Amino acid sequence: MTKYWLPLTYKPKIEPVLSGKCTQTIRLGDKYKIGDQTAFHGWVGVPRRSKWSFRTEMFDLNEVIDIIVFPDSIFDYITKMILTDEECDELARLDNIVPPTKKELLKVLGSMHDLEYGVDMQIIRWIFYQGVSE
User: Fold this and answer.
1) pTM for this structure?
2) Exposure winner among 9, 69, 98, 106, fewest CB in 10 A?
3) Quick one: average pLDDT of 75-85?
4) Residue 104 is part of which domain span?
5) Exposed/middle/buried for 124, CB within 10 Å: 0-12, 13-18, 19+?
6) Domain harbouring 8, CATH code
């Protein structure tokens, strides 16, 4: 089991994660595994150059889905298929993307990563137990 402390910088997602209404995020790479633990934190000012504004307790990862994200689609390694528009909309809803659409989800992911040739990412989901530490 590995522990991760991950930043939350997408503002519409912060409060739902803190309250337990959002228990999913999409992260770069392929390092996360079921059974790992993660906690989230925010920044007071400039990311990586300021103190943490909040941090959550550790959460157990209970689902990890490997995907490839392209500028216009998401490929699921498990099904070996491109997700439908409806599946992407649901993924956006679970990730608290505003508005919860495929278009906005890909826009948000594309603002953080160059998706031109496809990027390996993971959908990680966790069990919400507690709350926030100051």
Assistant:
1) 0.89
2) 9
3) 97
4) 3-133
5) buried
6) 2.30.130
DSSP secondary structure letters along the chain? --EEEEE---HHHHHHHHHTS--EEEEESS---TT-EEEEEEESSSTTSS-EEEEEPPEEEEEEEEEEE-SS-EEETTTTEEPPHHHHHHHHHHTT-SS-SHHHHHHHHHHHS--TT-EEEEEEEEE----EE-
> Rounded mean pLDDT of the chain?
93
Strand-pairing partners, residue 56, are 132
> Largest Cα–Cα distance of the chain, in whole Å?
42
Q: How many domains does the chain have?
A: 1
